Amino acid sequence: MSFSISGKTAIITGAASGIGHAIARRFLDEGANVVLADQSEKRLKSACEGIAERENARLFVGDLRERLTVANLLSATIDAFDRVDILVNASREFTTTDPLDPADKTVDEALSQNLMVALRLSQAVARRMITQAEQEDERRAEYGAIVNLSSLAAQRTQPELLAYSISTAAAEQMTRALAVALAPHNIRVNAIALGSVMSASLRDCIADKPDYRDSIIHGTPLRRIATAAEVAEAAQFLVSSAAGFITGQVISFDGGRGLLDAVQRPAH
Questions:
Q1: Cα(10)–Cα(83) distance, rounded to whole angstroms?
Q2: Are 145 and 192 contacting, i.e. CB atoms less than 8 angstroms apart?
Q3: Is residue 26 within 8 Å of 260, Cβ to Cβ?
Q4: Beta strand 33-38 with 187-194: parallel, antiparallel or unpaired?
Q5: Chain segment 100-118, per-residue pLDDT in tens
Q6: Which of 3, 201, 232, 241 is the most buried (most CB within 10 A)?
Q7: Are strands 9-13 and 33-38 parallel, antiparallel or unpaired?
């Protein structure tokens, strides 16, 4: 059993900030070749100052909602490192929704960004992994691993999070379907369902609303907010051989929040 990913090649989307960037940095530090992909060139270059020159790092900028961009990302990865072993779909869009407004387009946008980008990229990368396997020793136990990021929102009913909840729930079902479809090729697919993680957006939110921070901690049995670095550790585990018999799973990473009833009993 090994947690090593040294020498593996990984594509990380949403790598300009937050959890995606934390995963990319950890993978680089663990010796993997990493292609850091994001839609914003400015944010990506700013976030990657000091690591963009590393031999095992490459930056890719593009809108992955475009099919051609997906193909270009895979081609750039192969050109740089000759192969791809790991995909982490960390790019997500969080928006609030008016569930009773027929003109609200957030559901369409969230499905496009949070589901279809991950699906199309997973399909493209998986086909490349299968091709690699056909060219290599068929006795190898594993040829690739894919990790998707989901959310506790996929299992909770909050009308204002309609778009985000639907898209993350769909991503979890996609994870299970791809896991079964790719199992014969020794490609594993799993997801991490996140609770509250201290991202830049959450930090800004609780700075303005300290009571919100207290409510998160009170609603989390472990009584704290996770760090992006902790999510990166979980992602490394899932793509390593230590998780070689784990596929099709949605791993709750929420400090126990999902174990609690969303409606708390009133104090006596």
A1: 9
A2: no
A3: no
A4: unpaired
A5: 888 889 999 999 999 999 9
A6: 232
A7: parallel
The residue type found at 93 is E
Q: Are 12 and 90 in contact (CB under 8 A)?
A: yes
pLDDT the model gives residue 268: 40
pLDDT tens, 205-257?
788 787 888 888 989 999 999 999 999 999 999 999 999 999 999 999 999 99
Q: Which 3 state secondary structure label does DSSP give 84?
A: coil
Give the SS3 label for residue 162: helix
Secondary structure of residue 55 in the 3-state scheme:
coil
Full 3-state SS string of 97-145: CCCCCCCCCHHHHHHHHHHHHHHHHHHHHHHHHHHHHHHCCCCCCCCEE
Give residue 104's region: left, alpha or beta (phi > 0; psi -120 to 50). beta
Residue 16 DSSP class: T
SS3 helix, strand, coil % of the chain, rounded to 5? 50, 15, 35
Phi, psi of 67 (to 5 degrees): -60, -40
CATH hierarchy code of domain 9-198+228-255: 3.40.50.720
Instruction: Locate 252 and state its tokens.
Output: 């709750």
Residue 177 is encoded by which pair of tokens?
């379907």
Please state, in angstroms and rounded to a whole number, the distance separating the CA atoms of residues 39 and 180.
30
Strand partners, 250: 191
Residue 240: phi and psi, rounded to 5, are -90, 170
d(CA 78, CA 76): 6
In angstroms, rounded to a whole number, what is the distance separating the alpha carbons of residues 3 and 235?
10
Q: Are 4 and 30 in contact (CB under 8 A)?
A: yes
